[in-house]
Amino acid sequence: MPPRSGGPEELRISGDDDVVRVRQLVRTYAQQTKLSLVDQTKLVTAASELARNTLIYGGGGFARVEEISDGRRSGVRASFHDEGPGIPDLTLALADGWSSGSGLGLGLSGARRLVDEFDLDTEVGRGTVVTVVKWKR
Amino acid sequence: MERVPILKIGGVLLVSIQIDLHDQSVLALQEDLAEKISATGAHGVVIDISAVEIVDSFIGRMFATIASISRLFDADTVVVGMRPAVAITLVELGLTLGGVRTALDLERGMKILGQLGRQRRGVLPHSGELERDF
Q1: Which candidate, A20, A96, A107, A5, places its Cα nearest to that of A58?
Q2: What is the CATH number of the domain that holds A19?
Q3: pLDDT tens, B1-26?
Q4: Tell me, what's the pLDDT at B106?
Q5: What positions does the domain Histidine kinase/HSP90-like ATPase occupy (chain A) (predicted)?
Q6: Which of A56, A105, B11, B41 could staple A97 via S-S, CB 3.0–4.6 A?
Q7: Top-level CATH class of B6-131?
Q8: Which one of A13, A39, A41 would you mutate to disrupt binding with B, by most B Cβ within 10 Å of its Cβ?
């Protein structure tokens, strides 16, 4: 694991307001890490999609945001945890335009395109953890 | 929940989004706008997003929905003032905002609505009007 520079912070996601708070928290970290404005915007947008997924599909959960470093560069890692129903078909869930809910189906696939690293850990009946990383260029 | 104010200037409704949008505020804005267009008979809606730092798929979909709703009331919608970082992010996200008219700034947006309004009042029947969506 890379050593941490900016300590992790967690936020509960149980309502609309929390999605906005997650966006603000991720932006704070992105600014601290001095990501470019475009990269900040991409990361915050991805976080917004994922936080909403946690709320709507996962039935709520929490987000964890931290500054990370791999020795050469720094970045921001944000993860979204829920104990919801999990995702039965990952290929389908990551396909553009597919949605199990009322969304556009861009949430997961779109968020994935906006970040440098994307990891999805899910188990049916247990929940889902989505982790994304954006590195400073 | 904060509500986004809707201002009326002549036949145009101006919505300037100055808050960090909650999903509920987004839904409320759609409803408020439909009410207001219906009540005022406005021919145009301008949504100013120059203060908006991020547009995700939910917010982006709102623009398309508002444009569709306004069309039902015979009004045009123009989204103005998108920040460059937001534009880049939207494209990468895969959100094309098809069917939503955009303009660089408020001034140009108002100009576009003025032109569309004149077209409407002018030569009739306007053959191009029905094909505007394309």
Answers
A1: A107
A2: 3.30.565.10
A3: 788 999 999 999 999 999 989 999 99
A4: 96
A5: 39-132
A6: A105
A7: alpha beta
A8: A41
